[in-house]
Amino acid sequence: MSELALEHEFVEGSPTVPALLLLHGTGGSPTDILSLGKELCPASPMLAPAGQVSERGAARWFRRHAEGVFDTEDVIFRAGQLAEFIVEARKRYGLNERRLVAVGFSNGANIAAAVVLLHPEVLTEAVLFAAMLPVPEAPRHDLSATRVFMANGRQDPMAPSAPAQELVTVLRERGADVTEHWHSGGHQITVDGLAAAKEWLSVNGHNGPHPANG
């Protein structure tokens, strides 16, 4: 069996709850983000890959030119790379028929949003903490089968309200079901945001076949 393209950790879990694709923020790691998955749904199978871009030694999912200024070409390339990893990991770990929900914070949330926008045949559900629009002029794919939960801070200097709201708008224009949770803080995951995400996970989606498999 060939090696998967991205280094990752995988944790077995219950077949009755969604599998989680956990995507770390800048400077994070698969081990770090597993703790978030355990807070959200401790019984879930968890797949946590590692970002392959290094920014002064800090792991990231894609390059940026400056704070909040993303390298769009690299975002598109890395989103395609992650989409391919998801397809192969589903096969490797027997997740093809499972509901799979991406969960990301900051840079991890942004790459998850990019995959949702660019590769809806691969990823249709995401929990995004501190996300913003990752690509300008995203293609107009039909996202009517897509569900997204977004939790953002109104005082977040790294994911300001305007580009965060842009992501909401772009998703909804393409038919996605978006649940917004806004808090008064900054670049963080709040207790209330975590609780709202857990509730969203419990009531949204289904455990049927993945769209890419018919």
Query: Which radius of gyration do the C-alpha atoms yield?
Result: 16 Å
**Contiguous helical run count:** 5
Silhouette: globular
Broad structural category? alpha/beta
How many strand segments? 11
String of helices and strands: EEHEEEEEHEHEEHEH
CATH class, please?
Alpha Beta
CA distance, first residue to last residue: 25 Å
Helix content: 25-40%
Overall domain count: 1
- Would you identify the regions where 5 or more consecutive residues have pLDDT less than 50? 206-214
CATH topology: Rossmann fold
Percent strand equals 15-25%
CATH superfamily label: Alpha/Beta hydrolase fold, catalytic domain
Name given to the CATH architecture: 3-Layer(aba) Sandwich
The average pLDDT score comes to 93
Main pleated-sheet profile = 7 strands, mixed
Question: Largest beta sheet: what is the strand line-up?
Answer: 1-3-2-8-9-10-11
Report what the structure shows.
GO terms for molecular function: hydrolase activity. Keywords: Hydrolase. Belongs to the AB hydrolase superfamily. AB hydrolase 2 family. The protein is of the alpha/beta class. The chain has a single domain, classed as Alpha/Beta hydrolase fold, catalytic domain (Rossmann fold, 3-Layer(aba) Sandwich), CATH 3.40.50.1820. It is 33% helix and 23% strand. It contains five helices and eleven strands; from the N terminus they run ββαβββββαβαββαβα. It has a seven-stranded mixed beta sheet with strand order 1-3-2-8-9-10-11, sandwiched between helices. The chain has a two-stranded antiparallel sheet with strand order 4-5. α4 links the parallel β10 and β11. α2 packs across α3. It is globular and about 40 Å long. The two termini are 25 Å apart. The C terminus is likely disordered.
